[in-house]
Fold:
Amino acid sequence: MKKILLSIAFASITILANAQECKKADEDAVARIKADIDYLASDALEGREAGTKGEQLAVEYLSKRMKEIGLKPMGTDEYKQPFGFSKNVMFSNQSILTVNKPSFKLNDDFYPIKYSANHVDIQGRTKWVGYGIDAPEKEYTDYKEVREAYMGKIFVMDISSPDGIHPHSAYLKYHDLNARLDLAKAKGAIGVILVNFDQTADAPSPQFKKIYSKGIPVVFAKGDMIKSLFYNKDVHHPCRIKVEMNETKATGYNVVGFIDNGAKHTVVVGAHFDHLGYGEEGSLYRGAEPMIHNGADDNASGTAALLEIATFIKEKTKKFKKNNYLFVAFSGEEKGLLGSNSFVKQTPISTTDMNYMINMDMVGRLDEDKKLAIAGVGTSPVWEETLNDIKCGGITIKTSQSGVGPSDHTSFYLQDVPAIHIFTGTHEDYHKPTDDAHKINFEGTAFVVAYIETIIKELNDEGKIEFTKTKDQDNESAPRFSVTLGVVPDYLYEEQGMRIDGITEGKPAHNAGLQKGDVVIQMGEIKVVDMMSYMKGLSAFKKGDKVMVKVKRGEEVIETEVTF
Ligand SMILES: [Zn+2]
Structure:
């Protein structure tokens, strides 16, 4: 009992000592941080997009720096840990659609859609299945016949609905093509030809980056040729569908170094080093000429901070010896947390042996308020009290609970690792070519580094900290946004866009007539492809902004103006 009291007393003395320790930024640290950011955010690296030469240069630099610091290589190839990703999907002209005699022409007459299986070649008889909708509560079904009538057939399905595709359709909840294809497969379809006869629906997109295969070929056929074939819907035409698509694969690289103290648990410190290259997807730049997006704050700053923390811990190992330390510079974050997602699935240290994870993304713009946003404090009961005890360079903190957010800590939280995310706030250069090194507060970054070092030191004696699941919150409480849509996003939605799971009355989304189940695909000029792009997009708006928001409701696309 005494011993415990004693260690509590010592703990508070340590806190006081720490408070003094980070009143001044270490000049050498500031110089190193500046040198790292200056290089990573230079034009030579062309915006460090995953899968490009610029990324390679960054990987070489980071490997060299980790070696200098004395970190042990923990990638699969020295410090490098590769991961593959799909960059684009192109149709091969070996794809075939033949119904009865005529052969359709790829692109002009038909094309595979993202739900199609790849490398498949099937033959069978067609079966007209109307809209492919089964709505018992409306006493409506397109599947009236016995099961055998459908088994092994190639379904021909109209992508409209019994009363068309529009927001007031009585069949709204059945518009979703994804679900209709699942049903078709369950009914025995070996392939599906989609048609758009009443033209109220939008044709499925011929452009997609990833295949979401349903396990059977699915093609969209357009034009009069297909229409004339199904003038009589009772004819079962002989049919062949062959789908060949080429996925352009690319490789990205995480960079991984280790301090091995022979401890049971390992602390992970992470920051993504990739950025947007010359813009395009994810960029908020609207100029005509492609420009290098240097990403000094996003996230050369976090990467430099990572190297600095590694340097500090390596030098002062004694104070930190109760954990091992894994330093991971992630790539592919801007493409949807690709690097961290792959990392947690092939990590050199099992996630169950990870004590906690600290992520830094955009830590270079500490302003006069010295406010630091820390997300994910709900992932362990330990965070809140630890963070509140730290006095460092006048930094004040704003915390939020959720372990899910628009950066790499999310990948660790989803593996039950306590994970926090550190961020100095968004700004007008966010995701633009103007996010340059000369706008970085280098001394401020050094204070953020000192703050994080203090967290790590404080937790040295805590053993393995407890993990808790967090409630995924409404964006209102997330720190990086100055506005809210007033919705609960569906974090598990896997298709393109952000699906609304709930709506708060009286908030912007509700006022604009958005509904539960709507999928937000665009806000202003920002394309929303997933949760990350949604959250990043939202952070670009201010209170009072009027923004065009595009949502998919079933197969219908609706535009509406939202006032934040
Ligand atoms: Zn970032």
